[in-house]
Structure formats: structure tokens, C-alpha cells
User: Fold this.
Amino acid sequence: MTNIFNNSSRLKQIVELSNWQLYEVTAPEGAIKSVSWQEIQQKGPASYYELNHHYIFAPKPRYDQSLRDAYAELGFGTSLRLKSLEDHVNMVGNGAIEVGGYLTYCFTRLIFSPTVLIATSPQSALIPKPPAVMIPYSYVIDKFEKYFKIVLPEDFGLSAPIPMPTVPKPQ
Assistant:
């Protein structure tokens, strides 16, 4: 028996209105698994979201474009952008940055824990302390309807595409 997030269809609509999608990347033991962009694209976007599952955001690719290329072309991605600390009511977050007068939590993943939705990114050498936002399920739709935004390079005074550091592939 699965535990489907009750508002999956509405959350999916909100995300897809921004031309982004969520893809499941849950490992059998409940952790985020390492998969290639090609594997993610072949699996296709999630139709609904389950508790104890992890999802990665990716932009909708053009018909002639790979998912990896669509993601690389943008350079930035999904966020919750709050005008003030008062917007934090009914959620807890850390690691926000200021972008254009907004407190901005950038993230690449949604983790549907047993009790709250967690929006975060994986820890890496480039992001040793990634932002994280925890939202009780009863407030997820309200928060995403009000604050979900795509962060664009222009928000930082940059132009796309953003050059990304290259990491050598293991042999």
C-alpha cells in the first residue's frame, strides 16, 4: 500500500505551470539514488508524489532536447521566494539568500518525509550547507501557490547560460 500525498495533482499543476517537472529518484532504502539524466528522462516525470519518496526538479525539455541539456541551459532552478519573515508562518527554513529583495530558498529536490515536505538540494563541494525548508503537508499547496518561483540568471544580474564547473568523470 502506498501513501500518496493528498494534493499531488495540485502540486504537480503548480510545478508544471512553471514549465518544470518532478522526477522520482528514490532508492530502495528510501535515500536519493544516483541516476543519470538519461535514466531520469526515460522514466518520465512522476504522475503523483508518495510519502517517503524523493523527487528531483527538471525543466520540461523541448521536443528535440535532452533533459540534461534543458537543465544545463537554465543554470538556476526552483525556489520559494518570500517577501518577509512573516511569510515563514507554518514552515521552517534555513539557508535563504537575498535575491531582489526576497528571501529565496533555492532547491533541486523535494523529499516527502512521513510528516513534512522538505525542499532542499544535495550537499556538495559547491554547496556544503544547502538551504532547506520544511512545510507541514496541510500548508504545502498554500506555500507553493504563493511563493514557488523559478530563479533565473537575470535575478542575479547575470545572463544565461551560466557556465557550470566541470568535474572529471570517474574512470
